[in-house]
Amino acid sequence: MTIKALIFCKVHHKAMKKVIDEFNDIPEIKKVFSLTGDYDLLAEIVIESTDELYNSFVKKIDPIDGIIKTNTHIVMKEFSR
């Protein structure tokens, strides 16, 4: 069973393009959105387990320079029209 999570990110504005490019190089990140409001970017990640989510953060996301803060939410259920 796959798990989808939404990663809200505060990013240094001068690093925005670099962060987006690095997110696009991470295969498990399926979509990246530019936002208004409290967060600058939203990344949708699809993984197989919470261990894989942890490893994605430790090895791929946390090391990205320019990310100030993240706030991650696991999707419990998706509703479609």
Report on the structure:
- This protein is an alpha+beta fold and 81 residues long.
- The chain has one domain: Lrp/AsnC effector binding domain/regulation of amino acid metabolism (RAM) domain (Alpha-Beta Plaits), CATH 3.30.70.920.
- Helices cover 26% and strands 37% of the residues.
- It has 2 helices and 4 strands.
- It has a 4-stranded antiparallel β-sheet.
What fraction of the residues are assigned to beta strands by DSSP? 35-45%
CATH H-level name... which superfamily?
Lrp/AsnC effector binding domain/regulation of amino acid metabolism (RAM) domain
CATH topology: the name is: Alpha-Beta Plaits
Total number of helices: 2
Element-by-element helix/strand order:
EHEEHE
Number of strands: 4
CATH class descriptor:
Alpha Beta
Shape: globular
Strand order of the largest sheet: 2-3-1-4
- Fraction of residues in helix: 25-40%
End-to-end Cα distance: 22 Å
Question: What integer is the average pLDDT?
Answer: 97
- Level-2 CATH architecture: 2-Layer Sandwich
**Which stretches are low in confidence, meaning pLDDT under 50 for 5 or more residues running?**
none
> Strand pairing plus helix content: what structural class?
alpha+beta
Number of domains: 1
Summed up:
The protein is 26% helix and 37% strand. The chain has 81 residues and is an alpha+beta fold.
Write the layout of secondary structure elements.
Elements: E1 3-11, H1 16-24, E2 29-34, E3 41-47, H2 50-61, E4 67-74
Antiparallel strand pairs: 1-3, 1-4, 2-3
